[in-house]
């Protein structure tokens, strides 16, 4: 912040009603920055508030509880908010397909509301062999088409070039301002053995042991928004689901500590058979002895039903689009289930699925919670996933108690096919998003793992708990998220339609230049976060060059990504931002 203040402290905005190039200048609207209850998020919000205040842009801060915050973003009932995205699988598309018009995770509201009919985007794919050249199209006519081409492309080099075009499009809107690439910060008691976490941020406790104890107390977050596998879209919910359900595949830790995807409910993960039309068919055989927690047999038809439910337009799940890779996605039948190509044979205990084309990360999708099965008779009740008494699952644990907003107790599932391998009899998931409360309970020995710590305690924790304070790699990006339909221009602006949106793109990108990512990482994050010049994070590699994906944007030959995040560039970034803002607000710089 000190660099920001030094660079902009002498900037004085004088607002007046003056006309310049068709733009009527006046006082900028106040921006409301939305964040969820968390000391770290609050600190970043306060920094953004002060950074923009130094340029006389007013920012108010609104704090909401986690589930309310998620729904506010999804509903588009905000102007600008904090956001973060962790990889669902190790492919850049997991950071790009969420921004299609109908995606439930499209918090920026691209292709929704007023933006739906705005014709201003171009898409020329002729140089890559496609008969696509759209000029002044809508978001659906361009970005949605581009993502569909990416998912159908089997030429790896062409596919990555298409993904770079997709990131170019979203970054050009200015709606996503990347701040840093994630690290995973948590604390775990030295007494816990057998714990591991994956790069998506999921924590695994089923193979843990604590000498003298039959239970482990953990705190991941507050009350989950949902623990229906098809509807969950949060990391803490995914961690819980990984203990409650068994999919065809799962994440596993090898003896050397590395992670892999292995078969789980399936006997094996076979290679796909490439068909004459380019589709790829996989046939999975279910293991013997699979049971639901209520004693019913787990059948292949349970997977067929569950996948078709999760992929259906009727359910409208945030992660429904993760089934786009399956042939037939997009239409529902008369029962409200997706027409994806999934066929079960209960007698043979097989599940046959046909993909529209080869997908390199298919096994990772099989291990993702959205692909878990659910008990058909149980989910007929919409409230099934809200109480312990009505919850039926097929994984290592069941829910034995649910004290809402306090604790969810997971108890080892006696019907689980691999119950003998589960070493921790009970997991108590305490529900809180108060980092100070988490730390207090960790220090006094009440909780053995906490998934967050107070930002202002990080340096002390590093020194006081050198073996229990953990900072691990995580594939994800923390970013500022604008609602594309939010009005950033003065009320008396003369701009409308495409010209108005082009102006707001400039304003959003200028605001992105005002933020000192190095300060945020070093003074607020303090946990090895890396300043982010692009939305797609570290950990994603371009196969043609072997470089990180974000280093190959081609946006500039002077720096990687879309923002020059070097410390030396910050003053120039601020100068460029002020020049842009001068087009819309009157700014005078004292000599």
Description of the structure:
The structure is a single chain. With 591 residues, the protein is an alpha+beta fold. It has 2 domains: 297 residues, no CATH class; 286 residues, Periplasmic binding protein-like II (D-Maltodextrin-Binding Protein, domain 2, 3-Layer(aba) Sandwich), CATH 3.40.190.10. 25% of the residues lie in helices and 22% in strands. The chain has 14 helices and 27 strands. The strands form 8 sheets. Strands 4, 5, 6, 9, 14, 21, 22, 23, 24, 25 and 26 form an 11-stranded mixed sheet that branches. A 4-stranded antiparallel sheet has the order 17-18-20-19, covered by helices on one side. Helix 1 packs across helix 14, helix 4 packs antiparallel against helix 5 and helix 12 runs antiparallel to helix 14. The longest helix has 18 residues. It is globular, with a radius of gyration of 25 Å. The N terminus is likely disordered.
Summarize the structure.
It contains 14 helices and 27 strands. The chain has 591 residues and is an alpha+beta fold.
What is the domain total for the residues? 2
Structural class: alpha+beta
User: Assembly state here?
Assistant: single chain
How would you sum up the global shape? globular
- What is the mean predicted local confidence, pLDDT? 92
Low-confidence stretches: 1-22
**Helix amount:** 25-40%
The count of DSSP E runs of length 2 or more, i.e. the number of strands, is 27
Taking the sheet with the most strands, its summary is:
11 strands, mixed
Radius of gyration: 25 Å
First-residue to last-residue Cα separation: 22 Å
How many H/I helices? 14
């Amino acid at each position: 912040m000190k660099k920001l203040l030094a660079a902009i402290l002498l900037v004085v905005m004088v607002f007046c009603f003056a006309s310049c190039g068709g733009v009527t200048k006046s006082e900028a609207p106040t921006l409301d920055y939305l964040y969820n209850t968390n000391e770290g998020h609050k600190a970043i919000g306060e920094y953004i508030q002060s950074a923009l205040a130094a340029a006389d842009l007013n920012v108010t801060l609104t704090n909401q509880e986690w589930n309310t915050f998620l729904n506010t973003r999804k509903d588009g009932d905000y102007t600008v908010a904090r956001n973060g995205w962790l990889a669902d699988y190790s492919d850049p598309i997991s950071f790009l397909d969420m921004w299609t018009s109908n995606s439930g995770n499209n918090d920026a509201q691209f292709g929704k509301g007023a933006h739906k009919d705005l014709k201003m985007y171009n898409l020329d794919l002729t140089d890559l062999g496609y008969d696509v050249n759209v000029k002044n199209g809508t978001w659906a006519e361009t970005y949605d088409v581009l993502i569909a081409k990416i998912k159908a492309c089997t030429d790896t080099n062409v596919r990555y070039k298409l993904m770079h075009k997709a990131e170019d499009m979203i970054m050009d809107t200015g709606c996503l301002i990347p701040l840093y690439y994630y690290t995973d910060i948590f604390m775990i008691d030295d007494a816990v053995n057998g714990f591991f976490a994956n790069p998506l941020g999921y924590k695994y406790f089923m193979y843990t042991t604590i000498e003298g104890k039959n239970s482990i107390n953990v705190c991941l977050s507050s009350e989950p928004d949902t623990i229906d596998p098809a509807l969950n879209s949060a990391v803490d919910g995914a961690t819980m689901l990984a203990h409650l359900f068994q999919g065809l595949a799962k994440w596993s830790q090898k003896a050397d500590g590395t992670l892999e995807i292995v078969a789980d409910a399936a006997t094996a993960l076979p290679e796909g058979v490439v068909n004459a039309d380019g589709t790829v068919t996989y046939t999975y055989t279910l293991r013997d002895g699979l049971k639901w927690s209520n004693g019913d047999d787990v059948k292949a038809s349970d997977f067929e039903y569950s996948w078709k439910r999760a992929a259906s337009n009727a359910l409208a799940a945030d992660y429904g689009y993760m089934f786009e890779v399956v042939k037939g996605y997009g239409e529902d039948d008369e029962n409200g289930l997706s027409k994806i190509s999934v066929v079960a044979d209960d007698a043979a205990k097989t599940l046959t699925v046909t993909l529209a084309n080869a997908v390199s990360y298919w096994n990772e999708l099989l291990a993702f919670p959205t692909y878990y099965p659910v008990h058909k008779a149980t989910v007929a009740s919409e409230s099934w996933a809200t109480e312990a008494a009505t919850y039926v699952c097929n994984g290592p644990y069941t829910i034995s108690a649910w004290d809402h907003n306090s604790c969810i107790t997971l108890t080892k599932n006696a019907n689980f096919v691999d119950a003998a391998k589960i070493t921790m009899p009970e997991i108590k998931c305490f529900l809180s998003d108060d980092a100070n409360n988490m730390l207090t309970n960790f220090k006094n020995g009440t909780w053995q793992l906490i998934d967050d710590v107070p930002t202002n305690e990080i340096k002390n924790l590093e020194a006081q708990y050198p073996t229990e304070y953990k900072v691990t790699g995580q594939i994800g990006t923390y970013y500022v998220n604008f609602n594309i339909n939010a009005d950033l221009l003065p009320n008396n602006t003369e701009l409308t339609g495409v010209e108005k949106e082009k102006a707001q793109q400039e304003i959003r990108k200028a605001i992105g230049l005002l933020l000192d990512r190095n300060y945020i990482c070093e003074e607020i994050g303090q946990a090895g976060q890396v300043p982010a010049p692009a939305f797609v994070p570290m950990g994603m590699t371009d196969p043609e060059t072997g470089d990180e994906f974000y280093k190959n944007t081609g946006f500039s030959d002077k720096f990687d990504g879309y923002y020059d995040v070097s410390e030396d560039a910050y003053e120039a970034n601020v100068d460029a931002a002020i020049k842009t803002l001068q087009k819309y607000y009157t700014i005078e710089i004292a000599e």
